[in-house]
User: What shape does this take?
Amino acid sequence: MRWVMPYIDEVTWARWDGLAAFAPKPVVVLAGLLAGMSVFCLTPFTLFLYAIFIAVVDLVQDRDGEVVARIFLTNMETIGNYFHQLFLGLIILGVLGLCFALLRRRTLLSGQYLQFFHLSVSWEGLLATAVGYVLYFWFAVFMEVPGLLTQGVWLFVFSGPLLNWYLRTVHSLLLVLISGRSWEFSSEATARMLLIQKLSLGLDQINLVRAHGDTRQLEVDADLDATDLRRAEDLLLSLPRMRRVKLTSPFADLGQLEMQSGQAWRSLAQIRQARRY
Assistant: This one.
């Protein structure tokens, strides 16, 4: 089981992961750097919203207006001090984004996740979540943002997953903006990721993926049996503006023979395993 944002369909998710895995490495790194540095710009806005939230809570609780105003001004002063560390902050968060992008690419290409019970956790997700908690602690203790350790302590629970979600979403959108504008490349990357995620194929089992922009046709050669060929066709036809999918497999005939006769001496899975080694 892998956690997926529920409001994103599987094709969009596969497109995001496909671009992160198969886009040129400099593009993936650039998108990661920009995503990380954007966190620095997002933080003052988040602190501003938090300051307003604390002020509203204090007013609802009938606290003295002068005290509420003083706390609000203190929060504004904290935001001003934050910009004094602009250069250092951009470097640190840029490195975070770079590491996030490279770890995401490595995880998608290797398929190696950390297992916690029935949940698979990626290395980049673990990194971003941990940094989210560290950033919250830094603002609460060292930046001395009022209320983070009192009224806003419940926000600590969400700070890690929120940073992970933000980096993943912004990194993906930047990749779509930079590399995803080519229909051919985007379709090829999405198709590869769908075959990996939905049909459990390895990279070495996908022999060819080629998109033809003039005919809106996708040509795929992969180690699939007859049943998986039909599933793959349904999956790949769901790609945006896809008109036709041509699927071939060196195992297709063998798969049909096994299903019809039931007398094959080795399963397709054994053949795949033997071919890999």
